[in-house]
Amino acid sequence: CALIPDWSHAMSKSETLFADAQRLIPGGVNSPVRAFTGVGGVPLFIERANGAYLYDADGKAYIDYVGSWGPMVLGHNHPAIRNAVIDAAERGLSFGAPTEMEVKMAQLVCELVPSMDMVRMVNSGTEATMSAIRLARGFTHRDKIIKFEGCYHGHADHLLVKAGSGALTLGQPNSPGVPADFAKHTLTCSYNDLDSVRAAFEQYPQEIAAIIVEPVAGNMNCIPPQDDFLPGLRSLCDEFGALLIIDEVMTGFRVALGGAQEYYDVQPDLTCLGKIIGGGMPVGAFGGRRDVMMALAPTGPVYQAGTLSGNPVAMAAGFACLTAVSQPGVHQRLTEQTDKLAAGLLRVAQEENIPLVVNHVGGMFGLFFTDAESVTCYADVTRCDVERFKRFFHLMLQEGVYLAPSAYEAGFMSVAHSDEDIQRTIDAARRCFAQL
Ligand code: PLP
Fold first, then answer.
1. Residue of the nearest CA to atom 7 in ligand 1?
2. Where found (predicted)?
3. Which residues are bridge partners to 366 per DSSP?
């Protein structure tokens, strides 16, 4: 580190830190989207956060609509979560043995998400989806899975797969390092297109273990499911003997208290959770039907484990977060604040003659710069004006509003966003639209 030059007189602290970070960490970040490659420029290095606000290393404040990519539904540095973490840490950081808090947490999660008879804690959303898919394969004795173009379920090998050249060709790896032999078991269908799913089942009627789906797609910006989509997936799974895995890592406890499955009234066999379930600590979970979950080690043959799974500090944070999120009025406020933001942005966009579509459900939203009437699948997203989004992103950043640094990510509201924060965001957006 002594070899790292000191740029501090010439550059902002974020620029200096980013220059240093790039020498030591690939791309300067520990998760790619943070590097601002989707929008260009230098990422903000964050020093602290409170409520709806982030404060960067140069001391500037931003209204935050990223919320640590979803977990911060209550706002940053929530006192109940902070105190629970401090309290738990005072009793020890990890025991590698069961604790009472794990039982309390399992009970709370299964109460809040009634399709989950049983739950297993892990350390990330990726672990949750990876383990749920292994379980589905082990339970059904089938290898293939269906995922949807534009949906992201973490970075396990078989989930980093894009569609082959024809809709029904076998999947192609999305990343070097993913063997084609793994990717070929992943079939990629089009979101909101039940015909493409039926065709996949008809081509492989006995081979598909599960469908995994984001019930509101939040990794290609924000695409809600059309009315028949989730019920249609449920019936196709029933018809062909496959399991339905709803990936609620993003939507869980955000779109509604019981997740998107409650909001859209659809019953999965397995659910994946992450983000909010840890209140900002690294937690994921998967769970569902008792007969399926009992196939998991040690009761069943499907192996899954974790040194730090159910970690006492993380469980304390998650329990405090879910307890606070379960209070009456939380989801109503999240939805109302998101509605206000969406309506305000649309209004000022129209006034400034900027064609804009805003999708939103519960506490998540997405902005699309497009002339289209609606945006309902990945192909629609790719037709939007990404260059215009990039300019808008940087103008908003200058205005002190932190949006997700990519045209392909959803925005997240928190209950800490006040009417004044939202009005400031809309006023800032109007000034930015005027400059586009
Ligand atoms: N599933 C969904 C829907 C996600 O949005 C994400 C991450 O953004 C994941 C899974 C992976 O979660 P993690 O980043 O915690 O591994």
1. 154
2. Cytoplasm
3. 359
User: What is residue 97's predicted lDDT score, i.e. its pLDDT?
Assistant: 98
Determine which one of 144, 147, 184, 275 is catalytic: 275
CA 293/CA 270 separation, integer angstroms? 9
Q: Is 61 helix (H, G, I), strand (E, B) or coil?
A: strand
Q: Which residue in 171, 132, 122 sits closest to 153, CA to CA?
A: 132
DSSP string, 261-296: HHHTT---SEEEE-GGGGBTBS-EEEEE-HHHHTTB
Interval 56-106: pLDDT, tens? 999 999 999 999 999 999 999 999 999 999 999 999 999 999 999 999 999
Asked about 247 being catalytic, the answer comes back as yes
H-helix or E-strand spanning residue 434: helix 419-435
Upstream peptide bond of 298 is cis (omega within 30 degrees of 0): yes
Name the residue of 219, 223, 246, 408 to mutate for ligand 1: max ligand atoms within 8 A of Cβ: 219
Side-chain half-sphere of 435: how many Cα atoms within 13 Å? 14
Nearest by Cα to 109 from 292, 296, 310, 291: 310
Residues with Cβ within 8 Å of residue 182, at least 6 apart in sequence: 157, 158, 173
pLDDT digits (tens, 9 = 90+) for 260-317: 999 999 999 999 999 999 999 999 999 999 999 999 999 999 999 999 999 999 999 9
In the DSSP assignment, the letter for residue 172 is: E
C-alpha distances in angstroms, 48 versus 36, 52, 62, 73, 385?
19, 12, 11, 17, 33
Residue 251 identity: T
Interface predicted TM-score of the whole assembly (ipTM), two decimals:
0.99
Q: Give residue 68's identity as a one-letter amino acid code.
A: S
Ligand 1 centroid from CA 152, angstroms: 7
Residues 399, 402, 405, 408: is their CA dihedral positive or negative?
negative
Q: Are 295 and 312 in contact (CB under 8 A)?
A: no
What is the C-alpha separation between 143 and 270, in angstroms, rounded? 17
Number of neighbours of residue 215 by Cβ within 10 angstroms? 28
**Helical ranges in 67-213 per DSSP H:** 79-90, 100-112, 125-140, 180-183, 194-203
